[in-house]
Amino acid sequence: MFKRKDLLGLKDLTAAEIELLLDTAVPMKEIITRPIKKVPTLRGRTVVNLFYENSTRTRGSFELAAKYLSADSINISSSSSSVAKGESLYDTARTLQALRADVIILRHPMAGAPHLLAGAVPAAVINAGDGAHEHPSQALLDLFTVREHRGEISGLRVVIVGDILHSRVARSDIWGFTKLGAEVRVCGPPTLIPPGLEQAGIKVFHRMEEALVDADVIIMLRIQKERQQQGLFPSLREYARMYGLNRERLALARKDVLVMHPGPMNRGVEITADIAGGPRAVIEEQVTNGVAVRMALLYLLAGGGAGHENDH
Ligand code: CP
To answer: Mean pLDDT in runs of 10 for the chain (312 residues)?
Structure first.
């Protein structure tokens, strides 16, 4: 039983809770492979996607997850809602509560926004990415994808490459993979690696050629082009030369390595097109698994699996 009201990050979850979320996603994956992908589990429940930042994968998969579980769902984006007229997050949340939302899925540019919301409303709150802080459902789908291929996470060598400093995906992946017993390595330019990782048991590399040796999993992060203006790396061409995943670098990893990317990708910058579309890449599987994992989250937080009552 999942005893939490909200899913705000992986930092606070135990390994057992993460395993429960992944185990629950297994039957959900079976549902989405059926010709008719619909079960009545969340009939009568209301799910709100509240997005203050752009999204394709996260928003689309949460919306499909709600529909496949027969919940009623609505999408609200900041540009087309009263947020554009200056309504605060708090007042928007209270309004959604008055509309009897059972689950609010929030993406917000401010780290900590979902935590604020969770304290303000009785609805379950799911963090769909908050600033550079966490993106827990992305990490869960990454874990699920690796577990499907490898059976278990423990003992694997996972290498995360790119802009670790600004990446909420990296932060959640680091928590998730380390809690389940993987060795986590990060690699990127010194300007894009936050301090203190080594004290937390993470191995830090600045050269791909060292980091990728015998990797079981490589997670390539999107280079956030806006960072170039901040002088954190010299040019996209230079970044691609130093930190792009190409065939020569891939050959340093294990033969059965899984290449992952949370998307959206900059093909030809952090990853070459042939690797992104090649046999080691599981990038589209990640997207499919995102629906299963998000169905599991909705089920556990709003359905029969919750150890609390969200009824109000
Ligand atoms: N991985 C991810 O969060 O993608 P979107 O921004 O498209 O949701």
So the answer is: 94 97 98 96 96 95 98 89 82 89 96 95 97 97 98 98 96 98 97 94 97 98 81 87 97 98 94 97 98 98 61 46
Angle, CA of 257, 64 and 179, to the nearest 5°:
40
Separation CA 46–CA 185 (nearest Å): 40
CB of residue 55 inside a 6 A radius of ligand 1: yes
Does the CB atom of residue 46 touch ligand 1 within 6 A? no
The structure's pTM equals: 0.95
Determine the pLDDT at residue 304: 58
Assess whether the C-beta atom of 262 lies below 6 angstroms from ligand 1: yes
Task: DSSP for 138-185, please give it.
Answer: HHHHHHHHHHHHHS--TT-EEEEES--TT-HHHHHHHHHHHHTT-EEE
Q: Is the CB of 58 under 6 A from ligand 1?
A: yes
Alpha-carbon distance 96 to 125, whole Å? 12
> What pLDDT shows up at residue 85?
82
Residue 227 is predicted with a pLDDT of: 73
Q: How far is the CA of 312 from the centre of ligand 1 (A)?
A: 31
CA angle 16, 22, 26 (to 5 degrees): 140
Query: What is the distance between the alpha carbons of residues 260 and 75, in angstroms, rounded to a whole number?
Result: 28
Q: Is the dihedral of CA 158, 162, 165, 167 positive or negative?
A: negative
